[in-house]
C-alpha cells in the first residue's frame, strides 16, 4: 500500500497555548483513519493544517510526495484534498447542482455539461438527484451534509477530510450521513474522519488515533482500542461515553 | 371654493417646466446612485482588509463624509475648489461628484458590514475547494451579501433622491426650484398656488420613491424564498 499522507513531528501554537505538540502519523491510499479525542485536543486544527487553512510552526506534512508548508501552492493542493466541516457550509444562494459544479468549473476549468454530469452521478449515489434544483434552505441538515460531501467529491480528490460532520445533527440525520461515509469508504476513498461518534469510529476506521492535549496518545486498530485501551487517559475518555449511555 | 387655484396644475407650460426640473432631479440622482453603488462595492470589499494602510484612510473617508453635512461638501466643491484649484465644474457635475462620493462611502460601509456578517465557514469551505480569493468574493460572498444589502441600499437610493433639492444652492434648477419659481410668478393672482405646486411635487417624489420601495420588497421576498 502506498503512503499518500505523512505527518511528522507537527507542532502548532496559538500564542502560549500549544495545540499540536509533535504529531506523527501516516495514511495509506484507500485507508480510513479515524481521529477521536476530547474537544480542544487539537484534532480539528490538525485537519486544517493538512490543507493549509491553518499554518503550522514546525515539523512536516508530506502529501503525495510533496512537502507542504510556506510557499506551497495551496489552491492546487486543496483541489486534491476534499474537506467537509461541522457547520452546514453550502453556498446558500446556489442550487444544489450549482454548489457542486462551482469548483470543478472555476478551479478545474471543466465545461458546465461535464461538471453537471459528474455532479448528477454523485447526487444519484447519495440518492438526492431529485434535489438538484433545490436551494440549501429547502434541505434537512443530513441532506445538506450529504450534498457537502458530494461537492467535495466532485473535485475527484485523492483524500477526504471530515471534521465532526455529524456534530450538529440529530441522531437520525447523523445516521444517514454516517451511512454515506461507510459507502464512500467501501469505494476505497482515502479518508481522515474526526468524530465524536464512538460507535461509528469503531465501525469505519482501518486505523485510529486517540489525541489528548495536542499529542497522539494511542494509535492502533479501532477494535483493539475500544476493547482494551492501553492508557489511563484513553480509559477515562471512553468511560465518559459509557456514562452517557 | 375649496379647489380654487387648482387650474395652475392644468397649464401645459407649467407642467412642461416642472417636467424639465424633474428630469434634472432624476438624472443627477440616477447617475449618482449608479456611481455610488459601483464604487461602494469596490471600496467595501477593499475595506474588509484589517491592514492599517486600508483601515485608517477608510475610516477617515467614511467619517468625513458622515460628519460633514452634504451641503458643506457641495459648497466646498462648487465654490471652494473652483477658486482654489481653478476647477470650473457646472452645478450638475459638482452635484453628481458629491452625491456619488457620499453614496459610495455609505454603500461601502453597507457592503463591508454585509460581507463580514456572512459566516466564516462560507469562505473556509470555498478555500477548501481550491477557489481563489477573488473567485470566492465574486461567486460566493458578494452574491450572498447583495441579497442582504437590498433593503439598506434601497433606503440609501431614496435618501440620495430626497437630498437633491439641496442642489438649488449650487445654482441647479431642479424640480423643487421650478416649483418655487412658478409659485412666485403666480402667487399674486393665485393665493393657493403654493399648496397645489408643492402638493404636486409631493406626489412626484412619492411616485419616484414608491416603485423603488416596491421593487426592493419584491426582490427581498424572491430571494428570501431561496
The count of β-strands of chain A is: 10
- Architecture of chain A, CATH level 2? 3-Layer(aba) Sandwich
Helix proportion of chain B: over 70%
CATH third-level topology of chain A = Rossmann fold
CATH class membership of chain A: Alpha Beta
- Low-confidence sequence ranges of chain B: none
Q: Which fold name corresponds to the CATH topology of the domain at 27-173 in chain B?
A: MetI-like fold
Shape of chain A: globular
What do we call the CATH homologous superfamily of chain A?
P-loop containing nucleotide triphosphate hydrolases
Largest sheet of chain A: 6 strands, mixed
How many strands, what sense, and barrel or not for the largest sheet of chain B? none
Please tag this protein with its features:
heterodimer, A: 245 residues, alpha/beta, Rossmann fold, 4-stranded antiparallel beta sheet, 9 helices, 10 strands, 38% helix, 27% strand, B: 226 residues, mainly alpha, MetI-like fold, flat
